[in-house]
Amino acid sequence: MVERIVTHAPHIQVTWIVGKVEYQLLKGMPNVRFIVFDKRQGKQAEVQLLNDLDNEKFDALLLMQVAFRANWVSRLIQAKVKIGFDWQRSKEMHWLFANKRIAPRAHAHVLEGFMGFADALGVPKVDKPSWSIPMSKEDIEFADALHHRLGKYVVISPAASKAERNWSSEGYAQAADYARTKGYQVVLCGGPSALDKQLGQEITESAEQIDENLIGKTSLKQMLAVLQRASLVIAPDTGPAHMATTVGTPVIGLYAHSNPRRTGPYNNLQNVVSVYDQVIKRQTGKDWQELPWGKRAKGDTLMSQISIEDVTAQMDALLE
């Protein structure tokens, strides 16, 4: 959405208030001024934001999160108009903090929902989204060195933020072994959390061979460069799946708890492996079309219903 504004309405000056971690990925994006908001600092983060804004007044504020914490922070920002989501997508008292709303849209992918904010500003529409996330020469050289050492490779980014959204280590290991039978090396990537590292270790122990384990060993931009060089990425509902989409790498997304039509990797929605439809029908007695958009399935073992056969079928389709 920001890329659309700066490309097709360059007269609009964009200030992006962004989280500390997310900024590490986005910093350097052309024609965008960033203000970093570190929510872990609590009240001090709000004080810092006021200092950074220095009483600045904006023509429009785009309230692109419905979480109450983001809504509460928005009261510190002076703007002539504060644009929020339509009533149907408004949650956590989001409607209280906006005085204008984007147009409603049924069954929209999150990305398409965000595009409604550019529509509200009158920015020209685009046929398909594009992303310009800058990488340094050093980031690109990091991935080039990996590619030179391994040749063509598949990336598995196994860990989501919650363990229940992860496929089994055995499943990931089987996918890794299958990739190697097709002539591809296998690279693991992910964040520095204990969950990421533990899952990476379990996969390494179960697979015949993991060629490179980069979990917790890269910056976000180095990871982006590694994903760009990959022939394929396999991941659950987690950030690297969407990062890979931004650089045009094919993605197999694995889903059980959330509807991939809403949150799947945008350029490969047709390649997701999902059991969401049958799970949500079993839990609610209704098809997904009859439920509130964004309805999540509940359970700690739902991802175990994803079969290795369905994953390898998508691997065949994308690698060949």
TrEMBL record:
Superkingdom of source: Bacteria
InterPro entries documented for this protein: Glyco_trans_9 (IPR002201), LPS_LOS_Heptosyltrfase (IPR051199)
Signal peptide from the UniProt entry: none
Record SUPFAM superfamilies: UDP-Glycosyltransferase/glycogen phosphorylase
Keyword presence, Protein biosynthesis: no
Pfam families the record matches: Glyco_transf_9 (PF01075)
Sorted UniProt keywords: Glycosyltransferase, Transferase
Gene3D superfamilies, alphabetized: Glycogen Phosphorylase B
Designated name of the protein: Glycosyltransferase family 9 protein
Organism: Aliiglaciecola litoralis
